[in-house]
């Protein structure tokens, strides 16, 4: 793709409570010459998603005596209104940027060509005590580990994109191509145990979808066995390795909890080429008596930290070399 800079952007905030809903987003600018301003487009995508997600969370969990809307109404809002508002806001934002930075004497350019310069994917999620919702346009992954350690990728497309082609915010009528995941939270114990968003540089480092899912299962098991501190210490190395195998920018944001406390904020980590010295990302202010959960990362079986084997029913043959080739 001949990227000259990292195109990924991300943001995460909140604890998954009514006072501090969990909001997560990652975006990956396309990065080719045709999408010369995609690093701007991905940043706008994340910023605007967070704004829309805060609005959605306030509707799902209103304050005071205000009556919340029904789950059926919220689901329709999530499936139809949210994508349209998000894409519309993104188009307006990038067109404004183009006007401010248009080359002197630039001839008239069709609107769709302007948008193409800023092309980006987007994956985002919102968790409140009442509902878990997520949206995706283009490649990347939403990974959810639920009760009993079940790993799912609920927004995976029915058909894989060909080559480097992917859906994008710059696609005409992009709101119609947004995939939505909707899951009411019927009890605190039914909330996701682990939510992870990643750009496609992580999943592409595996030879198969099965390997990626087992990788995320190992992450959940390692966290359950050791907690977040030892996992966080190894996270930059793991993502650097993934980036080397996929040849693409790799960014992961994740939130994990034990089931005993509200979902907490993690510190998102992005791996760039070259890899910079990682600096901690500030977390949101926690709800009283509840602290933020430390950052997490994928669990490789190569050069493991802590126990030599992950806990639980994971196929160790596939975990021995998660970045193996298909040969």
What can you tell me about this protein's structure?
- The longest helix has 30 residues, at 71-100.
- The chain has 7 helices and 10 strands.
- The two termini are 24 Å apart.
- It is globular, with a radius of gyration of 19 Å.
- Mean pLDDT is 77; it is low at 264-327.
- 32% of the residues lie in helices and 17% in strands.
- It has a 5-stranded antiparallel sheet, with helices on one face.
- A hairpin with an 8-residue loop joins strand 1 (8-13) and strand 2 (22-28).
- By secondary structure, the protein is an alpha+beta fold.
Would you tell me the structural class of the helices and strands?
A: alpha+beta
How much beta, percentage-wise? 15-25%
> How far is the first residue's CA from the last residue's CA?
24 Å
Rounded average pLDDT: 77
Count of helical regions: 7
Give the topology.
Elements: E1 8-13, E2 22-28, H1 38-60, H2 71-100, H3 111-116, E3 122-127, E4 131-137, E5 141-145, E6 151-152, E7 179-184, E8 194-198, H4 200-203, H5 209-226, H6 228-246, E9 250-256, E10 269-271, H7 316-319
């Amino acid at each position: 793709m001949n990227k000259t800079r990292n195109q990924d952007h991300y943001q995460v905030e909140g604890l998954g409570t009514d006072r501090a809903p969990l909001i997560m987003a990652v975006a990956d600018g396309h990065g080719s010459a045709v999408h010369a301003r995609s690093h701007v487009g991905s940043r706008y995508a994340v910023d605007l998603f967070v704004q829309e997600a805060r609005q959605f969370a306030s509707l799902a969990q209103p304050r005071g005596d205000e009556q919340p809307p029904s789950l059926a109404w919220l689901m329709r809002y999530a499936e139809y209104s949210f994508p349209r508002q998000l894409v519309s806001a993104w188009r307006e934002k990038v067109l404004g940027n183009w006007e401010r930075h248009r080359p002197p004497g630039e001839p008239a350019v069709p609107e769709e060509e302007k948008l193409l310069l800023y092309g980006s994917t987007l994956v985002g999620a919102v968790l409140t005590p009442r509902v878990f919702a997520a949206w995706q346009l283009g490649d990347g992954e939403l990974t959810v580990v639920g009760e009993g350690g079940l790993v799912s990728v609920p927004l995976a497309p029915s058909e894989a994109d060909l080559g480097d082609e992917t859906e994008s915010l710059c696609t005409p009528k992009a709101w119609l191509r947004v995939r939505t995941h909707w899951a009411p939270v019927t009890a605190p114990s039914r909330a996701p145990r682990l939510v992870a968003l990643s750009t496609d540089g992580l999943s592409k480092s595996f030879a198969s979808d099965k390997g990626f899912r087992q990788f995320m299962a190992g992450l959940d098991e390692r966290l359950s066995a050791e907690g977040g501190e030892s996992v966080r210490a190894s996270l930059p190395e793991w993502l650097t390795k993934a980036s080397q195998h996929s040849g693409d920018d790799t960014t992961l944001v994740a939130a994990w909890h034990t089931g005993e406390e509200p979902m907490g904020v993690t510190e998102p980590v992005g791996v760039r080429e070259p890899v910079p010295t990682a600096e901690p990302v500030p977390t949101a202010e926690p709800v009283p008596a509840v602290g933020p959960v430390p950052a997490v990362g994928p669990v490789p079986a190569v050069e493991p930290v802590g126990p030599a084997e992950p806990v639980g029913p994971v196929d160790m043959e596939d975990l021995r070399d998660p970045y193996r080739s298909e040969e």
